[in-house]
Write a structure and sequence with these properties.
- It is a single chain.
- The chain is mostly helical.
- Helix content is 40%, strand content 9%.
- It has one domain.
- The strands form two sheets. A two-stranded antiparallel ribbon has the order 1-2.
- Strand 1 and strand 2 form a beta hairpin.
- It is globular, with a radius of gyration of 16 Å.
Length: 143
């Protein structure tokens, strides 16, 4: 799932449990620009190069045993806000209850999932990063 700085869901994709989380990312990111933040599970040089070719900079925290790589100051500061992004996933699971697994049919599952996403979109107070205009300009700068 990709989300904006205001907590809005931009795109999502449903995949089986045995699919790597990095696989659908290039398709989800086709219409995005600027910087994309992910957790350590998205670390991949191939994915980084692929997204960079699309004009999107992937910023992830580094593993302890990784070589040092240059990370801009705004990237370091914004990585601290990544837990705020995780609250959207938490709200989907707990408030919208999309993780409920005892559906009697695929149609019931899909209806529950779509209703949860719609409920999340219509919340009055969404978790956001509370970025200033200057910080937003830094995020959307071309590479």
């Amino acid at each position: 799932m990709s989300e904006s700085d205001r907590g809005e869901i931009l795109a999502c994709r449903l995949t089986p449990g045995n699919v790597d989380d990095r696989e659908p990312l290039p398709d989800l990111a086709k219409v995005l620009f600027g910087k994309l933040f992910g957790d350590k599970g998205y670390i991949s040089q191939l994915l980084f190069d692929q997204l960079l070719a699309q004009g999107l900079e992937l910023i992830t925290p580094k593993h302890k045993n990784m070589k040092k790589r240059p990370l801009p100051l705004e990237g370091k500061l914004l990585l601290r806000k990544r837990p705020d992004i995780e609250t959207i996933n938490d709200q989907l699971k707990n408030i919208s209850q999309i993780e409920h697994t005892r559906h009697r049919s695929v149609a019931d599952f899909l209806v529950n999932l779509v209703c949860g996403l719609i409920a999340c979109c219509h919340q009055r107070k969404k978790p956001s990063l509370h970025l200033s205009d200057q910080q937003l300009q830094l995020l959307s700068q071309p590479l």
